[in-house]
């Protein structure tokens, strides 16, 4: 019996089909997304802005997508525990990470992370900026940032400041400002922002770069003085409070962002869809009305711009931690 070999054209066509099949399956999967509930890991405890803000935004996104978006708080390791879990999840768009600037701080402080923050996750979209404000007790003998710095320099190391731990965004804002302003102060860490706030109100802590949503009610009630915002622009909720830059300290502002990430190999069609849906949600008036009291400022940017911001923060935080000799507890 004579066996006929397949001709060259048939062989190449068959080979081409086999090579393109995985891409076809991936595209089909992306087009069908989302077909089931989406889990969103928040690597922080419940109740803070890092938990409240994504709940506000993703509730609207869930409505737009027609699928539940289930928030799971997985705190620990300075946000690295939950982040590591998402970095190893299937890149199918059904497990996401909602995090904040701590994402770009942790790698500078913790050795041997279980993930590569520059490669293993994709920055999808920023919800906005959540800047902090430098607060002091109402009976403090200074009313401007310049007076505060002069007082700190007059008694080197005598002042203390609060944070929710070494490496937290509020700690980094305080350390960055202190380094630029050129004074010494002692750090006191608290388990929660509410504890830190209580101690400032009581006058046992000299100052705190507090998230604006936490401090705002007490500032309005006159129980705290706000000397400056850490942001580059004045805050909509505190229009009379100058920024640290306006107060005469260039390069001392801190950008604290909140945003959504996906595992590194998630199809870009899904990443683009998520970016579009979150941006659409952020434009809904009821969402805006709920975000503003939480001190969230708009941070409009493309997916590529958000990725560039995260990469720049990774570099800048690594340099700051090294220069100041900051060590994780």
Polypeptide structure, described:
- Helix content is 44%, strand content 17%.
- The protein is built from 11 helices and 10 strands.
- The strands form 2 sheets. Strands 2-1-3-10-4 form a 5-stranded mixed beta sheet, with helices on both faces. It has a 5-stranded mixed beta sheet with strand order 7-6-8-5-9.
- α6 (169-181) links the parallel β6 (160-163) and β7 (186-189).
Entry summary:
The protein has 11 helices and 10 strands.
Core attributes:
single chain, 329 residues, 10 strands, 44% helix
Tell the overall outline.
Answer: globular
Gap between N and C termini, in Å? 79 Å
Radius of gyration, rounded? 24 Å
Q: What is the typical, i.e. mean, pLDDT?
A: 90
The total count of helices amounts to: 11
The stretches of 5 or more residues where confidence is low (pLDDT under 50) are 1-26
Strand order of the largest sheet: 2-1-3-10-4
Query: How would a crystallographer describe the biggest sheet?
Result: 5 strands, mixed
Number of strands: 10
Topology:
Blueprint (H helix, E strand, L loop, with lengths): L7 H25 L5 E5 L6 H17 L3 E5 L6 H8 L7 E6 L1 H8 L11 E9 L2 E6 L7 H10 L5 E4 L5 H13 L4 E4 L3 H10 L4 E5 H9 L3 E6 L27 E7 L4 H15 L2 H7 L11 H22 L5
Helix pairs in contact: 2-9, 4-11
